[in-house]
Amino acid sequence: MSAMEFDYVIVGAGSAGCVLAARLSEDPNVSVCLLEAGGPDTSVLIHAPAAVVAMVPSKLNNYGYETVPQAGLNGRRGYQPRGKTLGGSSSINAMLYVRGNAWDYNHWAALGNTGWGYDEVLPLFKRSENNEHLSGAFHGQGGPLNVTYQQHQSPINKMFLDAAAMNGIAPNPEYNGAEQAGAFMYQVTHKNGERCSAAKAYLTPNLGRTNLKVVTHAVSAKVTLEGRRAAGVAYYQGNQLTQVKARREVIVSAGAFGSPQLLQLSGIGAAAELQKHGIAVAQDLPGVGKNLQDHIDYVQSWRVASSTESFGLSLRGTAKVASAMLEWKNKRSGMMTSTFASAGAFFKSSPDVAVPDLQLVFVIALVDDHARKMHLGHGISCHVDVLRPHSRGSVGLRSTDPRVAPVIDPQFLSDERDMALLLKGGQMQQRILESTPFDAVRGKMLYPTSIADPRGMEQDIRNRADTQYHPVGTCKMGPDSDPMAVVDAQLRVKGIAGLRVADASVMPTLIGGNTNAPSIMIGEKAADMIRASY
Protein backbone atom coordinates (compact mmCIF):
# COMPACT_ATOMS: atom_id res chain seq x y z
CA MET A 1 0.00 0.00 0.00
CA SER A 2 1.46 3.36 -0.97
CA ALA A 3 1.91 5.83 1.85
CA MET A 4 -0.01 9.09 1.92
CA GLU A 5 2.25 12.11 1.53
CA PHE A 6 1.97 15.59 3.07
CA ASP A 7 4.28 18.52 3.63
CA TYR A 8 3.84 18.31 7.40
CA VAL A 9 2.81 15.42 9.63
CA ILE A 10 1.82 16.36 13.18
CA VAL A 11 1.56 13.68 15.88
CA GLY A 12 -1.01 14.52 18.56
CA ALA A 13 -4.07 16.76 18.33
CA GLY A 14 -3.58 18.26 21.79
CA SER A 15 -3.16 21.89 22.80
CA ALA A 16 -0.07 22.53 20.63
CA GLY A 17 -0.91 20.09 17.82
CA CYS A 18 -4.29 21.69 17.07
CA VAL A 19 -2.63 25.12 16.87
CA LEU A 20 0.05 23.82 14.48
CA ALA A 21 -2.48 22.08 12.24
CA ALA A 22 -4.58 25.25 11.98
CA ARG A 23 -1.69 27.69 11.52
CA LEU A 24 0.32 25.63 9.02
CA SER A 25 -2.76 24.85 6.89
CA GLU A 26 -3.54 28.59 6.60
CA ASP A 27 -1.19 28.45 3.61
CA PRO A 28 -3.22 26.76 0.83
CA ASN A 29 0.01 25.70 -0.85
CA VAL A 30 1.04 23.31 1.93
CA SER A 31 -0.63 20.08 3.03
CA VAL A 32 -0.93 18.98 6.66
CA CYS A 33 -1.80 15.63 8.24
CA LEU A 34 -2.75 15.54 11.94
CA LEU A 35 -2.69 12.17 13.72
CA GLU A 36 -4.65 11.67 16.96
CA ALA A 37 -4.73 8.45 19.02
CA GLY A 38 -8.16 9.27 20.47
CA GLY A 39 -11.49 9.78 18.75
CA PRO A 40 -13.41 12.89 17.67
CA ASP A 41 -14.40 15.43 20.36
CA THR A 42 -18.15 14.94 19.90
CA SER A 43 -19.07 13.90 23.48
CA VAL A 44 -21.38 16.20 25.45
CA LEU A 45 -19.04 15.49 28.41
CA ILE A 46 -16.36 17.51 26.63
CA HIS A 47 -18.57 20.48 25.78
CA ALA A 48 -20.49 20.88 29.07
CA PRO A 49 -17.89 22.43 31.42
CA ALA A 50 -19.18 20.79 34.63
CA ALA A 51 -18.82 17.31 33.06
CA VAL A 52 -15.07 17.55 33.70
CA VAL A 53 -15.86 15.63 36.91
CA ALA A 54 -17.05 12.66 34.85
CA MET A 55 -13.95 12.52 32.60
CA VAL A 56 -11.04 13.14 34.98
CA PRO A 57 -11.64 10.04 37.18
CA SER A 58 -12.61 7.74 34.29
CA LYS A 59 -11.23 6.50 30.96
CA LEU A 60 -13.70 8.67 29.01
CA ASN A 61 -11.52 10.56 26.48
CA ASN A 62 -8.71 9.95 28.96
CA TYR A 63 -5.60 7.75 29.08
CA GLY A 64 -5.93 7.60 32.88
CA TYR A 65 -2.26 6.72 33.41
CA GLU A 66 -0.78 5.63 36.73
CA THR A 67 2.73 6.40 37.97
CA VAL A 68 5.10 3.90 39.49
CA PRO A 69 4.84 3.77 43.33
CA GLN A 70 6.07 7.08 44.76
CA ALA A 71 8.33 6.89 47.83
CA GLY A 72 7.43 10.50 48.69
CA LEU A 73 3.73 9.59 48.70
CA ASN A 74 4.08 6.63 51.09
CA GLY A 75 4.48 4.20 48.19
CA ARG A 76 1.18 5.17 46.53
CA ARG A 77 0.82 5.20 42.76
CA GLY A 78 -0.07 8.66 41.46
CA TYR A 79 -2.86 9.14 38.92
CA GLN A 80 -2.18 10.96 35.65
CA PRO A 81 -5.22 11.80 33.53
CA ARG A 82 -4.31 12.88 29.97
CA GLY A 83 -6.70 13.77 27.18
CA LYS A 84 -7.27 11.14 24.48
CA THR A 85 -9.42 12.93 21.91
CA LEU A 86 -9.21 15.93 19.60
CA GLY A 87 -8.03 18.78 21.82
CA GLY A 88 -6.01 16.44 24.03
CA SER A 89 -5.94 17.49 27.67
CA SER A 90 -7.61 20.81 26.77
CA SER A 91 -10.75 18.70 26.17
CA ILE A 92 -10.77 17.20 29.69
CA ASN A 93 -9.12 19.88 31.85
CA ALA A 94 -10.68 22.42 34.24
CA MET A 95 -10.30 25.17 31.58
CA LEU A 96 -8.46 27.70 33.77
CA TYR A 97 -6.71 30.33 31.66
CA VAL A 98 -3.32 30.94 33.27
CA ARG A 99 -0.10 31.94 31.53
CA GLY A 100 2.50 31.70 34.28
CA ASN A 101 4.86 34.42 35.41
CA ALA A 102 6.95 36.64 33.13
CA TRP A 103 9.93 35.48 35.21
CA ASP A 104 9.49 31.90 33.90
CA TYR A 105 9.94 32.84 30.25
CA ASN A 106 12.84 35.17 30.98
CA HIS A 107 14.40 32.26 32.87
CA TRP A 108 14.05 30.02 29.79
CA ALA A 109 15.82 32.67 27.72
CA ALA A 110 18.54 32.98 30.39
CA LEU A 111 19.13 29.23 30.10
CA GLY A 112 20.16 29.84 26.47
CA ASN A 113 16.80 29.55 24.68
CA THR A 114 16.92 32.63 22.48
CA GLY A 115 13.53 34.01 21.49
CA TRP A 116 11.60 32.64 24.48
CA GLY A 117 11.76 35.68 26.80
CA TYR A 118 8.49 37.14 28.07
CA ASP A 119 8.51 40.09 25.66
CA GLU A 120 8.78 37.61 22.79
CA VAL A 121 6.06 35.20 23.91
CA LEU A 122 3.53 37.79 25.12
CA PRO A 123 2.46 38.70 21.54
CA LEU A 124 1.78 34.99 20.92
CA PHE A 125 -0.43 34.71 24.00
CA LYS A 126 -2.30 37.78 22.76
CA ARG A 127 -2.58 36.49 19.20
CA SER A 128 -4.19 33.24 20.37
CA GLU A 129 -6.68 35.00 22.64
CA ASN A 130 -10.13 36.50 22.33
CA ASN A 131 -10.66 37.93 25.80
CA GLU A 132 -14.27 38.99 26.39
CA HIS A 133 -13.49 41.14 29.46
CA LEU A 134 -9.87 42.27 29.55
CA SER A 135 -7.93 44.26 26.96
CA GLY A 136 -4.88 46.50 26.86
CA ALA A 137 -1.18 45.65 26.85
CA PHE A 138 -1.59 42.10 28.14
CA HIS A 139 -4.64 40.78 26.30
CA GLY A 140 -5.80 40.01 22.80
CA GLN A 141 -9.11 40.22 20.99
CA GLY A 142 -9.99 38.35 17.81
CA GLY A 143 -7.84 35.24 18.43
CA PRO A 144 -9.24 31.69 18.18
CA LEU A 145 -9.15 30.87 21.92
CA ASN A 146 -12.11 32.39 23.75
CA VAL A 147 -11.31 33.58 27.29
CA THR A 148 -13.96 34.81 29.70
CA TYR A 149 -15.22 34.61 33.28
CA GLN A 150 -17.45 31.71 34.22
CA GLN A 151 -21.12 32.51 33.72
CA HIS A 152 -22.18 30.77 36.91
CA GLN A 153 -20.65 32.12 40.10
CA SER A 154 -21.33 30.80 43.58
CA PRO A 155 -21.53 33.42 46.39
CA ILE A 156 -19.04 31.23 48.29
CA ASN A 157 -16.31 32.50 45.95
CA LYS A 158 -16.56 35.94 47.53
CA MET A 159 -15.91 34.33 50.92
CA PHE A 160 -12.64 32.99 49.52
CA LEU A 161 -11.54 36.41 48.22
CA ASP A 162 -12.44 38.05 51.56
CA ALA A 163 -10.65 35.35 53.57
CA ALA A 164 -7.53 35.59 51.35
CA ALA A 165 -7.43 39.37 51.89
CA MET A 166 -7.67 38.85 55.66
CA ASN A 167 -4.59 36.64 55.38
CA GLY A 168 -2.49 39.13 53.44
CA ILE A 169 -3.33 38.08 49.86
CA ALA A 170 -4.78 41.21 48.29
CA PRO A 171 -7.28 41.07 45.42
CA ASN A 172 -5.73 41.12 41.94
CA PRO A 173 -8.26 40.48 39.17
CA GLU A 174 -5.54 40.69 36.49
CA TYR A 175 -3.26 37.75 37.42
CA ASN A 176 -2.20 37.33 33.75
CA GLY A 177 -1.16 40.99 33.62
CA ALA A 178 1.61 43.13 35.06
CA GLU A 179 1.55 41.42 38.48
CA GLN A 180 0.69 37.78 39.18
CA ALA A 181 0.41 37.83 42.98
CA GLY A 182 -3.01 38.17 44.61
CA ALA A 183 -6.45 36.55 44.82
CA PHE A 184 -8.94 36.54 41.95
CA MET A 185 -11.68 34.82 40.00
CA TYR A 186 -10.11 32.55 37.37
CA GLN A 187 -10.68 33.30 33.72
CA VAL A 188 -11.59 30.21 31.70
CA THR A 189 -11.50 28.95 28.11
CA HIS A 190 -15.27 28.97 27.60
CA LYS A 191 -17.45 30.23 24.78
CA ASN A 192 -21.22 30.66 25.06
CA GLY A 193 -21.43 28.33 28.05
CA GLU A 194 -19.31 25.59 26.44
CA ARG A 195 -15.70 24.46 26.77
CA CYS A 196 -13.41 26.17 24.27
CA SER A 197 -10.69 23.53 23.87
CA ALA A 198 -7.74 23.88 21.50
CA ALA A 199 -9.71 21.69 19.08
CA LYS A 200 -12.83 23.84 19.30
CA ALA A 201 -10.75 27.03 18.93
CA TYR A 202 -8.30 26.03 16.21
CA LEU A 203 -9.37 22.79 14.54
CA THR A 204 -13.18 22.65 14.26
CA PRO A 205 -13.48 25.94 12.29
CA ASN A 206 -10.89 24.69 9.77
CA LEU A 207 -11.91 21.06 9.18
CA GLY A 208 -13.26 22.06 5.75
CA ARG A 209 -9.79 22.96 4.44
CA THR A 210 -8.85 20.62 1.60
CA ASN A 211 -5.17 20.79 2.58
CA LEU A 212 -5.79 19.53 6.16
CA LYS A 213 -6.39 15.86 6.90
CA VAL A 214 -7.23 14.80 10.47
CA VAL A 215 -6.87 11.08 11.24
CA THR A 216 -8.40 9.90 14.55
CA HIS A 217 -7.84 6.56 16.35
CA ALA A 218 -4.31 6.71 14.91
CA VAL A 219 -1.72 5.48 17.44
CA SER A 220 1.71 6.61 16.24
CA ALA A 221 4.19 3.73 16.38
CA LYS A 222 7.36 5.53 15.33
CA VAL A 223 8.85 8.35 13.34
CA THR A 224 10.27 6.75 10.20
CA LEU A 225 13.81 7.85 9.41
CA GLU A 226 15.82 7.94 6.22
CA GLY A 227 19.39 8.19 7.43
CA ARG A 228 19.44 11.11 9.86
CA ARG A 229 16.25 12.66 8.56
CA ALA A 230 12.60 12.21 9.61
CA ALA A 231 10.68 10.89 6.60
CA GLY A 232 7.22 10.28 8.07
CA VAL A 233 5.25 8.41 10.71
CA ALA A 234 4.08 4.81 11.01
CA TYR A 235 0.82 4.50 12.93
CA TYR A 236 -1.75 1.92 13.95
CA GLN A 237 -5.46 2.12 13.23
CA GLY A 238 -6.76 -0.92 15.03
CA ASN A 239 -4.16 -3.59 14.18
CA GLN A 240 -3.43 -2.12 10.75
CA LEU A 241 -0.02 -0.46 10.47
CA THR A 242 -0.08 2.48 8.04
CA GLN A 243 2.54 4.98 6.96
CA VAL A 244 2.30 8.64 6.16
CA LYS A 245 5.19 10.54 4.57
CA ALA A 246 6.35 14.05 5.39
CA ARG A 247 7.97 16.04 2.60
CA ARG A 248 9.14 18.81 4.92
CA GLU A 249 8.82 17.97 8.62
CA VAL A 250 7.40 15.70 11.26
CA ILE A 251 6.26 17.60 14.37
CA VAL A 252 5.73 15.57 17.54
CA SER A 253 3.09 17.13 19.81
CA ALA A 254 2.11 14.08 21.84
CA GLY A 255 2.61 15.67 25.27
CA ALA A 256 4.99 15.23 28.18
CA PHE A 257 4.41 11.45 28.23
CA GLY A 258 3.64 10.69 24.58
CA SER A 259 6.44 12.70 22.95
CA PRO A 260 9.38 11.05 24.76
CA GLN A 261 7.68 7.65 24.32
CA LEU A 262 7.44 8.16 20.53
CA LEU A 263 11.02 9.43 20.24
CA GLN A 264 12.29 6.40 22.17
CA LEU A 265 10.23 4.03 20.00
CA SER A 266 11.87 5.72 16.99
CA GLY A 267 15.41 5.06 18.27
CA ILE A 268 15.97 8.57 19.65
CA GLY A 269 16.96 8.64 23.33
CA ALA A 270 19.48 7.32 25.83
CA ALA A 271 21.33 4.55 23.95
CA ALA A 272 21.53 2.14 26.89
CA GLU A 273 17.78 2.37 27.56
CA LEU A 274 16.90 1.84 23.90
CA GLN A 275 19.17 -1.19 23.67
CA LYS A 276 17.46 -2.73 26.72
CA HIS A 277 14.31 -2.85 24.57
CA GLY A 278 16.15 -4.05 21.46
CA ILE A 279 15.60 -0.73 19.65
CA ALA A 280 18.31 0.28 17.17
CA VAL A 281 19.85 3.61 18.22
CA ALA A 282 19.30 6.33 15.60
CA GLN A 283 20.37 9.20 17.83
CA ASP A 284 21.82 8.96 21.34
CA LEU A 285 20.02 11.76 23.24
CA PRO A 286 20.25 11.05 26.99
CA GLY A 287 17.72 13.78 27.89
CA VAL A 288 14.72 12.11 26.21
CA GLY A 289 12.25 11.23 28.96
CA LYS A 290 14.32 12.85 31.72
CA ASN A 291 13.66 16.17 33.54
CA LEU A 292 9.97 15.36 34.22
CA GLN A 293 8.48 18.09 36.41
CA ASP A 294 4.91 18.34 37.67
CA HIS A 295 2.94 20.42 40.15
CA ILE A 296 2.49 18.46 43.36
CA ASP A 297 -0.97 19.30 44.68
CA TYR A 298 -2.49 19.04 48.16
CA VAL A 299 -6.26 19.28 48.67
CA GLN A 300 -8.12 20.07 51.89
CA SER A 301 -11.92 19.80 52.08
CA TRP A 302 -14.69 20.83 54.45
CA ARG A 303 -18.32 19.81 54.55
CA VAL A 304 -21.03 22.45 54.10
CA ALA A 305 -24.83 22.30 54.37
CA SER A 306 -26.62 21.10 51.23
CA SER A 307 -28.50 24.40 51.08
CA THR A 308 -25.31 26.30 50.19
CA GLU A 309 -24.44 27.14 46.59
CA SER A 310 -22.11 24.13 46.13
CA PHE A 311 -22.07 20.86 44.23
CA GLY A 312 -22.71 17.63 46.08
CA LEU A 313 -24.30 14.22 46.38
CA SER A 314 -27.65 14.77 48.07
CA LEU A 315 -31.32 14.66 47.11
CA ARG A 316 -31.37 18.41 46.80
CA GLY A 317 -28.03 18.38 44.94
CA THR A 318 -29.16 15.70 42.49
CA ALA A 319 -32.39 17.53 41.74
CA LYS A 320 -30.39 20.72 41.22
CA VAL A 321 -28.00 18.99 38.80
CA ALA A 322 -30.88 17.42 36.85
CA SER A 323 -32.54 20.79 36.29
CA ALA A 324 -29.13 22.36 35.55
CA MET A 325 -28.50 19.77 32.81
CA LEU A 326 -31.81 20.66 31.22
CA GLU A 327 -31.02 24.37 31.46
CA TRP A 328 -27.62 23.82 29.84
CA LYS A 329 -29.14 21.70 27.06
CA ASN A 330 -31.73 24.39 26.23
CA LYS A 331 -29.91 27.64 26.98
CA ARG A 332 -26.19 26.87 27.56
CA SER A 333 -26.49 28.62 30.92
CA GLY A 334 -26.67 27.77 34.63
CA MET A 335 -24.71 25.50 36.92
CA MET A 336 -23.43 23.13 34.18
CA THR A 337 -21.35 26.00 32.77
CA SER A 338 -19.27 25.93 35.96
CA THR A 339 -15.86 24.28 36.18
CA PHE A 340 -16.25 24.01 40.01
CA ALA A 341 -12.86 25.74 40.31
CA SER A 342 -13.63 29.45 40.23
CA ALA A 343 -11.51 31.47 42.66
CA GLY A 344 -7.82 31.24 43.38
CA ALA A 345 -4.60 32.98 44.34
CA PHE A 346 -0.88 33.21 43.69
CA PHE A 347 1.27 34.07 46.69
CA LYS A 348 4.84 34.02 47.99
CA SER A 349 5.91 31.59 50.70
CA SER A 350 8.05 34.38 52.18
CA PRO A 351 8.72 38.03 51.37
CA ASP A 352 12.22 37.26 50.08
CA VAL A 353 11.22 35.09 47.10
CA ALA A 354 11.21 36.95 43.77
CA VAL A 355 7.85 35.75 42.41
CA PRO A 356 4.88 33.74 43.74
CA ASP A 357 5.89 30.13 44.41
CA LEU A 358 2.48 28.80 45.56
CA GLN A 359 -0.93 28.66 43.87
CA LEU A 360 -4.42 28.11 45.30
CA VAL A 361 -7.46 26.77 43.43
CA PHE A 362 -10.72 27.05 45.38
CA VAL A 363 -13.44 24.54 44.46
CA ILE A 364 -17.14 24.58 45.38
CA ALA A 365 -17.31 20.80 45.86
CA LEU A 366 -15.83 18.03 48.01
CA VAL A 367 -12.69 16.94 46.15
CA ASP A 368 -11.06 13.61 46.99
CA ASP A 369 -8.57 11.59 44.94
CA HIS A 370 -9.32 13.23 41.55
CA ALA A 371 -13.10 12.71 42.11
CA ARG A 372 -12.43 8.95 42.25
CA LYS A 373 -13.65 8.86 45.86
CA MET A 374 -17.14 10.29 46.16
CA HIS A 375 -18.75 11.39 49.44
CA LEU A 376 -22.37 11.97 50.27
CA GLY A 377 -23.14 15.57 51.06
CA HIS A 378 -21.81 18.94 49.95
CA GLY A 379 -18.52 20.68 50.53
CA ILE A 380 -15.82 23.16 49.63
CA SER A 381 -12.20 22.34 48.85
CA CYS A 382 -8.95 24.08 48.09
CA HIS A 383 -5.87 22.92 46.17
CA VAL A 384 -2.39 24.26 46.88
CA ASP A 385 0.49 23.68 44.44
CA VAL A 386 4.26 24.09 44.60
CA LEU A 387 4.83 26.15 41.44
CA ARG A 388 8.51 25.43 40.71
CA PRO A 389 9.25 22.02 42.21
CA HIS A 390 12.85 20.85 42.65
CA SER A 391 11.97 17.16 42.24
CA ARG A 392 12.75 15.64 38.83
CA GLY A 393 11.32 12.44 37.40
CA SER A 394 11.33 10.46 34.18
CA VAL A 395 9.26 8.79 31.46
CA GLY A 396 10.52 5.51 29.95
CA LEU A 397 9.35 2.63 27.79
CA ARG A 398 7.47 -0.30 29.28
CA SER A 399 7.15 -2.01 25.90
CA THR A 400 8.00 -1.52 22.23
CA ASP A 401 4.23 -1.55 21.58
CA PRO A 402 3.10 2.10 21.33
CA ARG A 403 -0.31 1.15 22.71
CA VAL A 404 1.21 0.17 26.06
CA ALA A 405 1.45 3.02 28.60
CA PRO A 406 4.95 4.34 29.33
CA VAL A 407 6.63 4.08 32.74
CA ILE A 408 5.88 7.39 34.50
CA ASP A 409 7.93 8.31 37.58
CA PRO A 410 7.47 11.94 38.72
CA GLN A 411 9.61 11.36 41.85
CA PHE A 412 7.15 13.53 43.80
CA LEU A 413 8.62 15.10 46.96
CA SER A 414 11.99 13.42 46.34
CA ASP A 415 13.55 16.83 47.00
CA GLU A 416 12.73 17.83 50.59
CA ARG A 417 12.47 21.51 49.63
CA ASP A 418 9.19 20.67 47.87
CA MET A 419 7.71 19.22 51.07
CA ALA A 420 8.80 22.25 53.13
CA LEU A 421 7.10 24.56 50.63
CA LEU A 422 3.93 22.46 50.29
CA LEU A 423 3.60 22.37 54.08
CA LYS A 424 3.80 26.18 54.18
CA GLY A 425 1.21 26.32 51.43
CA GLY A 426 -1.07 23.87 53.23
CA GLN A 427 -0.93 25.91 56.42
CA MET A 428 -1.84 29.11 54.55
CA GLN A 429 -4.63 27.32 52.72
CA GLN A 430 -6.12 26.02 55.97
CA ARG A 431 -5.75 29.45 57.59
CA ILE A 432 -7.76 30.99 54.74
CA LEU A 433 -10.53 28.37 54.78
CA GLU A 434 -10.78 28.58 58.57
CA SER A 435 -11.10 32.39 58.53
CA THR A 436 -14.31 34.15 59.62
CA PRO A 437 -15.79 34.72 56.11
CA PHE A 438 -16.41 30.95 55.93
CA ASP A 439 -17.80 30.60 59.47
CA ALA A 440 -21.42 30.67 58.31
CA VAL A 441 -21.01 27.68 55.97
CA ARG A 442 -17.96 25.69 57.04
CA GLY A 443 -18.58 22.33 58.68
CA LYS A 444 -16.23 19.49 59.57
CA MET A 445 -12.97 18.85 57.76
CA LEU A 446 -12.96 15.73 55.58
CA TYR A 447 -9.39 14.78 56.61
CA PRO A 448 -8.74 16.78 59.79
CA THR A 449 -5.36 18.47 60.15
CA SER A 450 -4.11 21.27 62.37
CA ILE A 451 -1.92 24.20 61.38
CA ALA A 452 -0.23 23.79 64.74
CA ASP A 453 0.75 20.19 63.93
CA PRO A 454 3.07 20.34 60.91
CA ARG A 455 4.11 16.70 61.30
CA GLY A 456 0.49 15.61 61.14
CA MET A 457 -0.08 17.76 58.06
CA GLU A 458 3.06 16.36 56.42
CA GLN A 459 1.67 12.86 56.98
CA ASP A 460 -1.64 13.90 55.40
CA ILE A 461 0.28 15.30 52.41
CA ARG A 462 2.14 12.00 51.95
CA ASN A 463 -1.16 10.11 52.28
CA ARG A 464 -3.13 12.15 49.76
CA ALA A 465 -1.16 14.66 47.64
CA ASP A 466 -0.84 14.02 43.89
CA THR A 467 -0.53 15.80 40.55
CA GLN A 468 -2.25 19.01 39.51
CA TYR A 469 -2.03 17.64 35.93
CA HIS A 470 0.89 19.74 34.66
CA PRO A 471 3.67 17.34 33.55
CA VAL A 472 6.36 19.01 31.44
CA GLY A 473 10.03 18.94 30.54
CA THR A 474 10.69 15.46 29.12
CA CYS A 475 12.07 16.69 25.74
CA LYS A 476 13.58 19.85 27.08
CA MET A 477 14.80 22.72 24.99
CA GLY A 478 18.33 23.97 25.53
CA PRO A 479 21.60 25.08 23.94
CA ASP A 480 24.26 22.64 22.67
CA SER A 481 26.18 23.22 25.90
CA ASP A 482 23.40 21.38 27.77
CA PRO A 483 23.97 17.61 27.32
CA MET A 484 20.41 16.85 28.48
CA ALA A 485 18.69 19.14 25.96
CA VAL A 486 16.59 17.26 23.39
CA VAL A 487 15.58 20.16 21.12
CA ASP A 488 17.16 23.53 20.34
CA ALA A 489 15.42 26.90 20.71
CA GLN A 490 13.80 26.29 17.28
CA LEU A 491 12.37 23.05 18.76
CA ARG A 492 14.41 20.95 16.30
CA VAL A 493 15.43 17.53 17.64
CA LYS A 494 19.22 17.49 17.96
CA GLY A 495 20.92 15.37 15.33
CA ILE A 496 17.82 14.51 13.28
CA ALA A 497 16.76 16.75 10.39
CA GLY A 498 13.10 17.48 9.63
CA LEU A 499 11.92 16.62 13.16
CA ARG A 500 10.62 18.96 15.86
CA VAL A 501 8.86 18.57 19.19
CA ALA A 502 6.27 21.20 20.12
CA ASP A 503 4.29 20.77 23.34
CA ALA A 504 4.78 21.05 27.12
CA SER A 505 7.61 18.49 26.98
CA VAL A 506 9.98 21.15 25.58
CA MET A 507 9.69 23.38 28.66
CA PRO A 508 13.12 23.36 30.34
CA THR A 509 11.49 24.28 33.66
CA LEU A 510 7.89 24.16 34.86
CA ILE A 511 6.19 27.53 34.76
CA GLY A 512 4.47 29.09 37.77
CA GLY A 513 0.90 28.33 36.71
CA ASN A 514 -1.34 26.02 34.68
CA THR A 515 0.13 24.67 31.46
CA ASN A 516 -2.67 24.75 28.88
CA ALA A 517 -2.31 28.38 27.70
CA PRO A 518 1.51 28.04 27.57
CA SER A 519 1.19 24.85 25.47
CA ILE A 520 -1.04 26.73 23.03
CA MET A 521 1.55 29.53 22.95
CA ILE A 522 4.26 26.91 22.16
CA GLY A 523 2.12 25.76 19.23
CA GLU A 524 1.86 29.35 17.97
CA LYS A 525 5.61 29.89 18.34
CA ALA A 526 6.44 26.60 16.60
CA ALA A 527 4.16 27.49 13.67
CA ASP A 528 5.96 30.84 13.25
CA MET A 529 9.39 29.21 13.36
CA ILE A 530 8.40 26.49 10.87
CA ARG A 531 6.90 29.03 8.43
CA ALA A 532 9.98 31.23 8.74
CA SER A 533 12.28 28.33 7.86
CA TYR A 534 10.50 27.74 4.53
Q: Could you list some keywords that capture this structure?
A:
534 residues, alpha/beta, Cholesterol Oxidase, domain 2, 7-stranded antiparallel beta sheet, globular
Q: How would you characterize this protein structure?
A:
- The strands form 7 sheets. Strands 1, 2, 11, 12, 13, 14 and 25 form a 7-stranded mixed sheet that branches.
- This protein has 13 helices and 25 strands.
- 55% of the residues are buried.
- 25% of the residues lie in helices and 23% in strands.
- The protein is of the alpha/beta class and 534 residues long.
- The two termini are 30 Å apart.
Give the overall shape: globular
Please count the beta strands (DSSP E, at least 2 residues each). Answer: 25
CATH topology of the largest domain: FAD/NAD(P)-binding domain
CATH architecture of the largest domain: 3-Layer(bba) Sandwich
Portion of residues within helices: 25-40%
Cα-atom Rg, whole angstroms? 22 Å
Poorly predicted residue ranges: none
Major sheet: 7 strands, mixed
Which band does the percent of strand residues land in?
Answer: 15-25%
* Secondary-structure content class: alpha/beta
CATH class placement of the largest domain: Alpha Beta
- Mean pLDDT across the residues is 96
Counted up, domains total 2
Q: Count of helices? A: 13
Give the oligomeric state of the chains in this entry, treating copies of one chain as homo and distinct chains as hetero. Answer: single chain
Alpha-carbon distance between the termini?
Answer: 30 Å
Assigned CATH superfamily of the largest domain: FAD/NAD(P)-binding domain
